[in-house]
Amino acid sequence: MRISVIGCGYLGAVHASAMAELGHEVVGVDVDERKIAALSAAHPPFFEPGLPEILASATASGRLRFTTDISEADDAEVHFIAVGTPQQAGGGAADLTYVDLAFESLLPHVADGALVVGKSTVPVGTAERLAARLAETAPHAALAWNPEFLREGFAVKDTLEPDRLVYGVDRPESAAVLDRVYRAAIEAGTPRIVTDFATAELVKTAANAFLATKISFINAMADIADATGADVTALADAIGHDARIGRRFLNAGVGFGGGCLPKDIRAFTARAEELGRGKSVAFLKEIDAINLRQRQKVVDLAVEALGGSVFQKRIAVLGVTFKPESDDVRDSPALDVAVHLKGLGADVIATDPEGIENARERHPQLEYTTSTEAALADADLVVLVTEWREYRGLDPVDTARRVANPVVIDGRNVLDRDSWRAAGWTVRGIGRP
Ligand SMILES: NC(=O)C1=CN([C@@H]2O[C@H](COP(=O)(O)OP(=O)(O)OC[C@H]3O[C@@H](n4cnc5c(N)ncnc54)[C@H](O)[C@@H]3O)[C@@H](O)[C@H]2O)C=CC1
Ligand SMILES: O=C(O)[C@H]1O[C@H](OP(=O)(O)OP(=O)(O)OC[C@H]2O[C@@H](n3ccc(=O)[nH]c3=O)[C@H](O)[C@@H]2O)[C@H](O)[C@@H](O)[C@@H]1O
């Protein structure tokens, strides 16, 4: 099929490449010339495992090209909209400017019989509004909402082998078109839910709200564990054995960040308030507050570990991205902690395998190094805030020799406390003695 993907960021670049990998003819469109130049040269403009390989093979096959010229989307049968929906400046609601602009710029290029498919995460009601606009200007085309559930770090696999497909449609023909797009996944038995626009939009928001709630729940338990000497990791293991609860997303620590969970729960709250249903999701404000307190907790632990002040103390911050296997620093708890410690007068040196460039762009005031050894050298305190494999795998004996003072705050509860303590370290975790 001929497909266009409007917006080639973390979601769109992977989607476009994956669709071409599946055999479709794909054009990726973005307004960012640098991004398009990089993608056209088969260089991913961000770090995502597996993307370089499929981008290279799809580009070489001739089935994938990138452009800043939206008129090249003209002959596509399916147009995916994958532009950003960030948090509005000065409020919690989603900023739909990019969706609206992309949609308007696409309208003159929508052929009769084409399907416009929203992938961006939007407030419920958006699809209905855009469908009405489409009916005015391209009455022989249709709209669908097909939310995306990929995780950064696993984006390629999640796109090629999704755990479910959700189609929000207003006519059966649209579902049939999407079935052709996702034929491979459907033949592999992927569950598919065909529903209306509002439900499809809400499925996405609800899924992210649930995941955020799960993380804040365990972080709330970690706080009680801290007050009582209990161990939140053992608690999570024990409740996680109950299949109704499940162990995944019960890792206590510095909390959730990224370009999605934080802004999505705020946008959901704002939309529910607009609908007069603010009370129903008021708990999400508490989920957000618990999450942000985790960042402060790690900073407080650092101050405490250094005897009440971090002023002019050398602190090695391990990790700046919001999670491992990504270079994304959007709303990153790790970077927030580093910035906060710097603000308290600490001599912070932050390191990360992939995120330094993005971090430096946002916070040039911090000192960065890509070398873990250089970060650790003569540190008065080590703060692990993104659980990259290389930090989890640090040898406590060797690491103790590099630092000035063997004290570590394990902001992700990933270090083996016994072996670190046996090597002379003072170890502080989150919700663990
Ligand atoms: N990043 C992720 O893991 C996931 C993101 N999403 C949702 O997907 C959407 C996109 O997110 P990301 O890819 O992370 O954002 P991003 O910021 O990485 O990418 C958005 C892209 O859209 C481009 N763009 C903006 N206006 C445009 C226009 N008028 N025409 C063409 N391109 C335009 C930007 O230049 C940028 O490259 C958001 O709604 C997000 O919530 C959903 C699931 C996963
Ligand atoms: O809408 C989106 O963009 C995506 O948001 C999340 O994906 P992602 O942001 O890539 O990352 P997650 O793996 O969900 O992690 C989010 C944050 O939660 C934190 N987290 C995760 C799990 C956990 O147990 N504890 C915890 O603190 C991570 O460190 C990270 O900061 C969802 O998992 C995806 O399904 C969704 O498509």
TrEMBL record:
Supply the alphabetized keyword list. Answer: NAD, Oxidoreductase
What Pfam families does this protein map onto? UDPG_MGDP_dh (PF00984), UDPG_MGDP_dh_C (PF03720), UDPG_MGDP_dh_N (PF03721)
Q: What is its EC number?
A: 1.1.1.22
* Substrates-to-products reaction catalysed: UDP-alpha-D-glucose + 2 NAD(+) + H2O = UDP-alpha-D-glucuronate + 2 NADH + 3 H(+)
* Keyword field contains Metal-binding: no
| GO terms classed as biological process | polysaccharide biosynthetic process; UDP-glucuronate biosynthetic process
The Swiss-Prot or TrEMBL record annotates one GO molecular function as: UDP-glucose 6-dehydrogenase activity
Catalytic positions? C260
**Which pathway or pathways does this protein act in?**
Nucleotide-sugar biosynthesis; UDP-alpha-D-glucuronate biosynthesis; UDP-alpha-D-glucuronate from UDP-alpha-D-glucose: step 1/1
Could you tell me what this protein is called? UDP-glucose 6-dehydrogenase
Source species of the chain: Agromyces protaetiae
Q: What is the lineage of its organism?
A: Bacteria, Bacillati, Actinomycetota, Actinomycetes, Micrococcales
